[in-house]
Design a protein that fits this description.
Length: 400
């Protein structure tokens, strides 16, 4: 629950917070020992502060109510709103109009230009709405959405100030620039000396960990300490570890630890699954198939953009009656969303020449080609034997 919801407040989830507080000592110990995360538990909230993730971790941006990613301007307003809420002039309750006035005044002080344009107001409202979703603000009378849609209808908000300083993963006192803030402890020599913890963190936070992305120390842990790694992930988070020569993934059989599910529901998810199967059937990769990604030779197979497009055209022709009309009418948009989904679960990488499918994509084939039974000697050499992840292909549970 905490991994999926790093902020839990008494106002929004009182029962969950009570459960966290009752087990706070053990939870703090587990998160710190297993993942190096800090858990802050107060009377009104719990905040799991995750350490900065590795560069290959799939991005998880803030989203608007309709699922669109936050724009840079929205993030700028989010920072301004948080600063305004920490102003000495802001009390435990604030009117929406007063908060907006404070934000605009702070923007002038910071040298940031704002306007009364409708698009600007939407960015501001989205930022405030996210803080409502997080539990930093609570709507007492009226709503934030109504202020935007009903000619600035007033809203009264409760401010949970104690949570505000914990939104960032580190304090700003010693931060010199945005890059320093985002990087956090990445590159810290002390943090780099803990390959077991770093590998566990990768497996918990990533849908798939590619072996070529692991430093030598973490590859060694994956090979030598797989049994202990499997036990820790199962006992701490209920995850099942699956390791192949090309990488590893830790999936959740209870479907409780994934923000993006694959396979999933809806046109994009269905089209992505069908596309993976179509490309795999067309290209027939083997355990020795490789592709080029950013100058590196990696396990995988390249599907040219022409092949991706022709395969999607055929899928739309065959299954278009079950797809959303908007996607059938705009196959290019469908392609972009399908590629984004496959990249978000680490099954594919977009390159200039096309889409590189990771061998793990083969595990989602409806009719997998199962590998022959192995001898004991072959099993011991599993790390060096390409398997294309096919032995568990019918499982269809590859979520992070």
């Amino acid at each position: 629950m905490l991994l999926m919801n790093p902020i839990i407040t008494a106002a929004q989830r009182p029962d969950d917070l009570a459960l966290v507080r009752a087990n706070a000592v053990e939870l703090k110990r587990v998160f710190n020992r297993v993942l190096g995360y800090q858990l802050v538990v107060e009377s009104g909230f719990a905040r799991l502060i995750k350490s900065p993730l590795s560069q290959e971790t799939a991005a998880r941006p803030a989203l608007t109510p309709n699922g669109a990613e936050f724009a840079p301007r929205t993030y700028a307003y989010l920072a301004l709103v948080c600063a305004s809420l920490l102003s000495p002039n802001t009390g435990e309750q604030v009117l929406m109009s007063e908060l907006v006035d404070q934000v605009r005044a702070d923007a002038v002080t910071a040298g940031i230009t704002t306007t009364d344009a409708t698009t600007e107001q939407r960015h501001l409202v989205r930022a405030i709405g996210l803080l409502v979703d997080w539990g930093v603000l609570s709507e007492v009378d009226g709503s934030v959405a109504a202020w935007d849609h009903r000619q600035h209808e007033e809203a009264l908000l409760d401010v949970h100030r104690g949570l505000l300083p914990h939104l960032l993963t580190r304090g700003l006192r010693d931060v010199g620039d945005p890059t320093h803030l985002i990087a956090g402890t990445l590159g810290d020599p002390v943090a780099a000396e803990q390959p077991r913890r770093d590998l566990r963190r990768r497996l918990v936070e990533n849908p798939l960990v590619r072996r070529e992305d692991l430093p030598e120390s973490e590859r060694d842990v994956l090979s030598r300490e797989r049994r202990e790694l499997t036990r820790v992930l199962a006992e701490s988070f209920g995850l099942v570890l699956e390791v192949r020569s090309e990488g590893a993934l830790a999936y959740d059989p209870d479907d409780e630890l994934s923000d993006v599910r694959f396979p999933g529901t809806g046109t994009v998810a269905h089209a992505a699954l069908l596309l993976v199967n179509a490309l795999t059937d067309e290209l027939r990769p083997t355990g020795a198939t490789t592709a080029e990604v950013e100058g590196r030779t990696v396990p995988g197979v390249l599907a040219t953009w022409a092949l991706v497009r022709s395969s999607l055209d055929l899928l739309v022709e065959q299954y278009g009656r079950t797809f959303a009309k908007a996607h059938v009418a705009d196959v290019d948009h469908l392609r972009s969303e399908v590629v984004a989904l496959l990249q978000s679960v680490c099954l594919a990488t977009a390159v200039p020449d096309g889409l590189v499918l990771h061998p793990a994509a083969a595990r989602y084939r409806p009719e997998p080609h199962r590998a022959p039974a192995k001898t004991r000697a072959q099993s011991r050499l599993d790390d060096d034997t390409p398997t294309l992840f096919t032995t568990d292909a019918t499982d269809h549970r590859g979520e992070s």
